[in-house]
Amino acid sequence: MTVKIYIPRDAASLAVGAEKVAKAFHAEIASRGLDVQVIRNGSRGLLWLEPMVEVETAEGRVAYGLVKPSDVASLLDAGLTSGGAHPLCLGKTEELPFLKSQTRLTFARCGIIDPLSLEDYKAHGGLKGLKKLPPWRRPRLLRR
Amino acid sequence: MNLHFASPDVGARTLEIVNEMKALEGPLLPILHEVQAEFGYIPQEALPVIARALNLSRAEVHGVVTFYHDYRDHPTGRHVLKLCRAEACQSMGGMALEDKVKKLLGIDFHQTTLDGAVTLEPVYCLGLCSTAPAAMLDGEVHGRLDDTAIAELVAGVRL
Ligand code: FES
To answer: If you measure CA to CA, which chain B residue comes closest to A12?
Structure first.
């Protein structure tokens, strides 16, 4: 199954090198022939740990913080794609104290969804409000 | 790459831009952005053209252009380096960084290096306080700058 890796693309992450990290991942993934999809998301908000790379595992997301392009090879060697142990590994994202003690409202989905995927948007409650409209007033997108 | 000198047809090109964009809601700012993207700054000759087309007075357009520091009335170097001087960046060593950059480039704020490579400008918060000290080089943001990182940036633009 395709593994999903999340690398933020918000301004703060870009300012500390997320773009170079993403490039390094793309290059390593291609040269190793891995079945990995890189998704550029919003930051989870732990800006002091950016660039923070996450991987989707069966037990939830696992995070790696302050990732530099030069770390990418060793992260993949350590099995990042299955949440493998590495000095940069922060454990499960949801268990990080900073996130655990928060109730997120406005930013509840930031960093969680793939911003370019309509399916992901729908899976997280997107378009629900529009569906309450009478059929003839719904945008064409929803009439199907 | 932008043209940094106003060509003789500033008026004509400006009018094209205005006509493309005047249907927007609140068209003045986007038009000014586009004019600056085209010429590298906002040439004086562009102002009456914009004013006439939008049915504004020249004074109004002038007022807007001079209110926003992002709009320039003169050409810049090939690169523009904006260094943040606001609170968070100051508290993270921004002043020392500022001295370092000025020494490396041999210029002060609002000046351009003699070789025309870089213009140095101050900016007051880039919204990157969490990764201060921050700078913006040609529209690209850079955070957590230290002496090495800023020296690398400067070396990159002086090639
Ligand atoms: S104070 Fe420098 S980015 Fe906000």
So the answer is: B128
Q: Residue A62 above 70 pLDDT? A: yes
Say if the Cβ atoms of B142 and A11 lie within 8 Å.
no
Q: What is the CATH number of domain B79-157?
A: 3.40.30.10
pTM over 0.90: no
Q: What pLDDT does residue A52 have?
A: 98
- Inspect the interface and report whether the beta carbons of A50 and B141 lie closer than 8 Å: no
**pLDDT for residue B1 is more than 50:** no
What residues have CB less than 8 Å from B133, skipping those under 6 apart?
B84, B89, B92, B93, B94, B97, B143, B144, B145
Q: Give yes or no for residue A144 having a pLDDT over 70.
A: no
For chain A, domains (ranges, CATH) are 3-105 (3.40.30.10), 113-144 (no CATH)
